[in-house]
Structure formats: structure tokens, C-alpha cells
Design a protein that fits this description.
Layout: H1 2-24, H2 26-53, H3 62-83, H4 89-95, H5 97-103, H6 108-114, H7 119-137, H8 145-176, H9 180-192, H10 204-211, H11 214-225, H12 234-258
Helix pairs in contact: 2-3, 3-7, 3-8, 3-11, 8-11, 8-12
Length: 264
């Protein structure tokens, strides 16, 4: 527990440093927020068109599809807030800064994942979450206390899977010196989960459930919240989350053994 609070203090310090950068480049961030607002407006328009123009989406009603979209938006945005440091990892490898991270008495994986939280998205996630909850309350869906609690558990499990994917990207970055390509592959695959993954044909459906398991991150939690029969059981989903973290940590440790430092 003492170590947990130590790392929490370190994360707060990193967040404070990032916030200072935010105020130094405030005009750039104002333009960024303008883009975010436009993007949010387009998302709201998209949800409106789903509800107004579509009577049935495969086996789902428009209101149910909106829940899938809102679940995707929250999980994707929250992962970006926490793991933005992954986007900077390639530069640290090339410039040799990762050598110094390995020398510090702090877990290098923790540093690589979280040492540059995204303040822009952190501030933006508050109004979007409030708006998402409001939109959800206006929908014609059946939600029980049990389904809501299980949904929250599966959202936490989704963050475990997101963590494992980002750890795997870091590990591959050490081995290949390529981060941007892997990150954008992950982001593009995540966008496929804006809709229920069950609507896709095989073998794409299987790949989205078990190779890059965005289906287990988004589709299964939304189905559970809506009291629908999930595509895969809750226990398979949770087991996949735990297993993916274990595998990604093994991959990270193996990649460190292959790291030859900037001097090489």
C-alpha cells in the first residue's frame, strides 16, 4: 500500500508537469479543444441520425446501438488519458532517454505508460461523461442494478485489456523501434467496436474478440448492461482480461532482455 501511494504521488507530479505545459501552450490547446468540440458535435449528430433514421441495426434497436457507442467513447477516451505516454515512447528509445528510465528506482513500465497523462482529454472526459449519462437516461432501455454493477466490473476489465494492449505495444516498440504504426492499428481496430462486434462476419468477428479483443472490451459490457445474452460469457471475458495482462507483462520482460540501449 505504501508503494501504491508512492507511485500515485509520482503520477500526480507528472500530471502537474503536464498541466504546466498545458498553460505554456494554451493557444495551441484552445485549438485542440475546438477540434474536440467539433468532433463531439459530429458524434452527437451521428447518434441523432442513428436514433432518427434507423429502425433496426441487425438484432439491436437504435437505443441499444447508442449504448455501444457511448461505452466505446468512454473506454477509448479514458485509455488515452492514462496511456498517452505510450505515444512518446519511440522518441525516448531513439534518443536514449529510456536508458535513464531504466536507471531510476521506479518501474520503467510505469514510467513509459503513465508519465505523460493527457490533460486535454482528462478535462474533456468530464463533460462528455456527464453528457453520455444524460443521453443514456433518455433511451428506451432496461437496466437493472445487477446489470449496472456487472457493467462497471466489465468496464474495469476492459481497462485491464487496454492496459495489456498498450504494454504489448511498448514491448514491440523496444523490439522494432516502431510505435506510431502499432498505436494507429490499435486505434483503427478500436473504432470498429463503436458498433456491436457481433454484426461483423467471421473471421473478423473472432479476431475482434480474441486477437485484438475490442469486442470483449466494448460489446460484452454493453450487452450485459442491456440485459442481453452476451456474445461470450462474463467469465471468459474476465479470464481474457487477466490472461492478457499476464501475457503482456511476460512480453515486456522478454523485450527488456533484447534491449541494447541507445549506445548500441
Amino acid at each position: 500500500m505504501k508503494r501504491f501511494f508512492t507511485y500515485l504521488k509520482i503520477w500526480k507530479l507528472n500530471a502537474s508537469n503536464t498541466l504546466q505545459e498545458f498553460f505554456v501552450n494554451r493557444y495551441t490547446h484552445i485549438l485542440f479543444y475546438l477540434g474536440k468540440v467539433i468532433r463531439l458535435g459530429m458524434s452527437l449528430l451521428f447518434l441523432y441520425l442513428i436514433k432518427d433514421q434507423i429502425s433496426q441495426f441487425s438484432d439491436y434497436s437504435p437505443d441499444q446501438v447508442i449504448i455501444f457507442f457511448l461505452t466505446y467513447q468512454f473506454i477509448d477516451l479514458f485509455a488515452q488519458v492514462i496511456f498517452r505516454g505510450v505515444y512518446l515512447f519511440r522518441a525516448r528509445i531513439i534518443r536514449g532517454n529510456f536508458d535513464f528510465m531504466l536507471l531510476r528506482p521506479i518501474n520503467p513500465l510505469f514510467q513509459a505508460l503513465t508519465d505523460h497523462p493527457d490533460i486535454n482529454d482528462a478535462l474533456f472526459i468530464i463533460p462528455t461523461t456527464i453528457l453520455s449519462i444524460y443521453i443514456a437516461t433518455t433511451l428506451n432501455i432496461q437496466v437493472t442494478l445487477a446489470s449496472l454493477l456487472m457493467y462497471l466490473l466489465l468496464v474495469f476489465n476492459a481497462m485491464m485489456i487496454a492496459t495489456s494492449l498498450h504494454i504489448s505495444i511498448l514491448a514491440m516498440g523496444i523490439l522494432t523501434k516502431d510505435i506510431e504504426g502499432l498505436i494507429w492499428i490499435y486505434r483503427d481496430v478500436m473504432r470498429l467496436a463503436r458498433f456491436p462486434v457481433t454484426v461483423y462476419l467471421e473471421p473478423l468477428r473472432f479476431a475482434l474478440f480474441f486477437i485484438i479483443p475490442v469486442g470483449l472490451m466494448i460489446t460484452v459490457p454493453a450487452e450485459v448492461l442491456l440485459n442481453l445474452t452476451p456474445a461470450y460469457s462474463i467469465w471468459i471475458t474476465i479470464a481474457t482480461g487477466i490472461t492478457s495482462v499476464w501475457i503482456s507483462l511476460k512480453l515486456w520482460k522478454w523485450s527488456l532482455k533484447k534491449y541494447t540501449s541507445a549506445s548500441s
